Task: structure prediction
Amino acid sequence: MTPIVAVEHLCKYFKTPRGQLHAVEDLSFAIEEKTTLGVVGESGCGKSTLGRTVMGLHESTAGVLRFEGEDVTRPNKAQKKNMHRQIQMIFQDPYSSLDPRMCVSDLIAEPMKAMGLCRDKTERERRVAELMDTVGLSRRFAFSYPHELDGGRRQRIGIARALSVDPKFIVCDEPVSALDVSIQAQILNLLQDLQDQRGLTYMFITHNLSVVKHISHSILVMYLGCEVEMCPSKELFKNPLHPYTKGLLSAIPIPSIHVQREEIIMKGEVTSPINPKPGCRFASRCPYAEARCHESLPAVEEILPGHLCACHRVREINGL
Amino acid sequence: MPEPGKILSGSIVYKDKNILDMTEKEVQDLRGNEISMIFQDPMTALNPVMTVGDQIAEVILRHQECTKAEAQVRMLEMLDKVGISGDRAGDYPHQFSGGMKQRIIIAIALACNPKLLLADEPTTALDVTIQAQVMRMVNELKKEFGTSMVLITHDLGIVAESCDAVAIMYAGEIVEYGSLEDIFDRTAHPYTIGLFGSIPRLDLDTDRLQPIQGLMPDPINLPEGCPFHPRCPYAKEACRHEKPGHAEITPGHFVKCLRAKEQLEEVTGS
Amino acid sequence: MTEMKNTPVSETAKDEPVRLKKRSYWGEVWHRLKKNPVAILCLCFLAILLFGIIFANVLSPYDYTAQDLSQRFQTPSKAHWMGTDDYGRDLLTRVGGRYSLLIAILSVAIGIVFGMIIGALCGFFGKGVDSVLMRIMDVIMSIPGMMLAICISVALGSGVFNTALALAVGTIPMIARQLRSSTMLINGQEYIEAARSFGESNFKIIMTHIIPNTLAPIIVQTSLYIGGAIMGIAGLSFLGLGVQPPTPEWGNILNNGLDFVYDFSTRWHVIVFPALFIVLAELAFNLLGDGLRDAMDPRMRK
Result:
């Protein structure tokens, strides 16, 4: 089966006054239909840029982007239109992603209007009401304004907007980070239900590993724009191979008093993605770094079946 | 903006003295000296036009009788304790990353050897790996300085790792209070149960989260009776009218819930 | 735990505002404006003023140029509600005369339309477009407003439209600058990015998201600009460039009146009435502007 979205050697650089910012560096992955790819990384690792590049909001610097097998790296008009319909995005901040001067029903109808779908007004209104039911938003809020609603409801508006044009693929950029725990769980359940009902494919971008474990089928770990590790979700948490993933997993406090987590405290902080030094991006914080780690960027290799990792010493470290 | 709150009743007892009865001067001497605070947002808690060294030394000079030179020595000591090299004392806050700024804030908070440290979501703004570094440092310094800490957080994981006793708050009230074991292993209040059901876990495989229904109540317009009853799966008619008091279900484990109280009465009655 | 529902949580809370009827954005603005008595009072006053101005020749029995030297400096009476001026012309007819306010509104309207277009383009596209357009604006701004208006007036000649245009050119850069910065601010918001992700065209984004969100401060400024324009017209007229006597215009009536107030007790009306009208019109625009700004912001809804 062709994957719904495939990315090959994708790069995205930005020019900044201080030099070239390598936001996404040589990333390759494919997302199968009706699955969720979780993208994890710390702030500034380029995961949001990746999402926006896949959305077509940023033009990639190099590499190929395929949607349903078709090359859409430099889309023509028809391809662009199709992409807008098939790929939608749920944004992180339910406060700034909704125009404060538009009421809920207008917000939900906006994508349909923009794409010229559902031109008939009564038909559109019916659809808005349907969508509000789908995302669990009471119809009596149809004419409320975003500022009158809490974060959870606003995020439901965001989801309804994304669903309004019946997309196949949704990029979720930290959709629950701004919400309280109890509301976060409601939204995560909603996203899972929608995936089951509508056969949606998600790319789920987050910094929260617990959330990504819960919702994803496979996970891509990023560090400073580079792919560090990618494998099915269960495998990653059972058997992390890359030193960064190990450190990241051990850094998460577990809400139980019986689990004693192994402490690997990573030294130092994330270095700058502007004009990065050659070599592995993680080398300066890596407890296993040796000379070659500072000289060349490790290639992504399939270390175990279905388990990709980019590290020069991965076999030594894991005794493989 | 709402008016700053007024304390209507009650007392805050610190070392057998009620802080509310103290004069402003006395409280000021206490603040930053015996009781200090770590704020949530390291980006805005530091003065951007003052070097970090001066900001730490300022607190020391204000509260301790010492010369400027002594304050400098103490300041460098503090920087070293939080893992920042002394030659960065002359740098300004913007030259530090988020995690480093939070370290500096912790250095300021601990500069006068406080007896009590109030930490309000100290790591919420930080990445997990940095959070792990900072929390470990805080716990070590706490031990070293013999400081007590009140840690305010929404992250039950951090609670499990750094705390001895836990108070769970809902709508302005402490609904459950007890030791770490009481809260994590003998969870009694439906709200606390709901919280545990809401968080995705790394250590467990759950297919589906069990979120608490509904939303936080409006603090201006709290429901009658138990404030949690509209969201509580166990709510009964009585919960709508009767405000539950604290029930001590096991020694030191307090729960504000009618159901827990009834269960307790059944056990002791039979 | 089993009692907890798993499906999307049903909405049961009763604490949110509920509205049943749907209005358009501007309908909503009007609805909110109606609740503000001060703004409505100002609106009525301005409406009456405009009505009077437009139908002055029908409403008034006098012609604004008709001189009657036997009736010079009449104090207000039944026949002449505001009295008469040095030529015995009816002051009410002259003050209510059509030009000041019309020119002021026209000039501000021209200024706003062009200023907004330029500002939105600069803020939205940035880079080259921004540099070129803003440098042109800087050049215009570097010339003192009155001087610019005089030059344009001289070039175009006097007359209602030309005067309005002459004054408008000076306000364009101010509005453009203001709109440019607020556009840049809003351009960074996620809802613009969201609109882009739906494939919304740049034109649609500017019209539906950027303009409504930047309009509020502009509306408030407008009232000030109108005041400024009234003064500007008076200035131009005084120099013989704007509206020429005997065409009535508040500035020149006031100016003219000033020559005769040495005898204030009998001739107070020649300056009090025109001044009062200028002040009232200005005040009404200001308060209406404030009211509109609040009405346009759904966040102000109670």
User: Anything to note?
Assistant: The CA atoms of residues 19 and 27 of chain B lie 7 Å apart. Chain B is about 40% helix and 15% strand. Chain B has a mean pLDDT of 86.
